[in-house]
Structures are given as C-alpha cells and as structure tokens.
Amino acid sequence: MLQPDQDETKLRLLNAAGEVFSEKGFQAGTIREICAKAGANVASVNYHFGGKSGLYDALLEHCHQEGLRRHPPTVGIPEDLSGRPMAVEALAAYVRSFLKRTLGADGPGWSTRLMAKEMGNPSPALERMVQSSIRPNLERLMAAVCTLLGEGATEQDVRHCALSVVGQCQHYYRARAAIEILFPDVTWDEQGIDILACHIVRFSLAAIRGYREAGLGGTAEQQIREGQEGQ
C-alpha cells in the first residue's frame, strides 16, 4: 500500500490506471492513455512497475488495501476470536467494512467497478491479490464463524457460512441499480449502509444459529430434509 510520502508519480499512475482499466478492462486499456491521464512519460510504467502487467498487479493490491485502510475490519478487535462476543464483533466489523468499501462514497469511483470487472473476467493478477489481500481478511471472518458454529463444525461448514455472509454483502453492490428501482427509499449514505449492515449481521447470526441447531455436517440432501421436517 502506498504511503503519502511515497513516489507521487506512482500514485498518479495507479489512479489513472484505475480509471482506464475499470472502464475498458486490462486488455483494451493502453499504457499511452494511462500515462496521458497521469501526466507521466510512457516509460514511467516500465520504470515503476516493470510493465503493464506489473502495473495492473499493483493496482489491484492498492485498490483492495486502500479500501481496508479507510474502513478497517479489525479496529478494537483482538486477534483471539475464540469467545462468542468477540466473534460477533468481528463478524459485524467485517460486514460494515465490506459495505462501506463497496457502497460508500469516500473512495475513488473506479475502485468497485474495477473489482467487479476483475471478478467477472479474472486475470492472472487476481490470484496474487487473493493470496496477499483477500485471503487474510476472509480467514479472520472464518475464524469468527467457526466460533459461532461451535464444536463439530467442519471446514466446509465454516467455509459455506462465511461465504454466505460475503454473498449478502456483495449482493447490494451488484444489484444496486435494480434495488433502487424496486425500493426507491433505500439510501446508500452512512445511515443507509448502517441499516444494511445491521440487517446482514442479524440475518447471518440467526442463520448460523439455525445451521448449528439443525445439525452440522452431513450431505446437502440430509440438511434440506432435516430443514423440511423441522418446519
């Protein structure tokens, strides 16, 4: 992640690359256009990043890390999430951070567009960003979910529940345009995001509790049948 005192040219190139790549994608975006937007020499991309691929790698990492810097999911929460109160806090912090990074207006407009484009049409840079940036954040969420599920939870139970939390968070960004048509009273300001975060946390905690009470593990068919019998 770049710091304010680091090379200004690199930061200008990253911001310009974000605008270009989020609009046109990696293949169609050109170094010439990026450098023109950044007010930099074409050779500066090779100098600072080793080429177009290196620039794109650095951009994805910068984009995700800057979002986490603005809205960290770990402030005031200890590393040890083995206790239920801290696990609930960690879950809530993850959801708030995710929604504020994707729906908030304090970051560059291109950042969420870039991530959505990359997820829809992944490049080799995605794996590197996942390993260095996304995985540590998800593993913390999974640690919280593991505590909330309790003894007997398998790795698959934890993974599925954690990814279900992520899916809820992603839905509001991906379906934002349709939601605005369906429910014009929904807002995306600080208050609106807090309302969504509270809902997702409550829904997730209830779902995890129900998942645990219905019995962990087993096949999908067994879990569906048990759920039907419990109705």
- Would you list the SSEs in sequence order as H and E? HHHHHHHHHHH
| Uncertain regions spanning at least 5 consecutive residues | 1-6
Beta-strand content bin:
under 5%
Which fold name fills CATH's third level, the topology of the largest domain?
Answer: Tetracycline Repressor, domain 2
Q: Quick one: how many beta strands?
A: 0
- Main beta sheet, described? none
CATH evolutionary superfamily of the largest domain = Tetracycline Repressor, domain 2
The assigned CATH architecture of the largest domain is Orthogonal Bundle
Class per helix and strand makeup = mainly alpha
DSSP helix count? 11
Number of domains: 2
Helix content: over 70%
> What is the arithmetic mean of pLDDT?
89
CATH class identity of the largest domain: Mainly Alpha
- Please state the overall shape, judged from the principal axes of the Cα atoms: elongated
How far apart, in Å, are the first and last alpha carbons?
A: 50 Å
| Overall radius of gyration | 20 Å
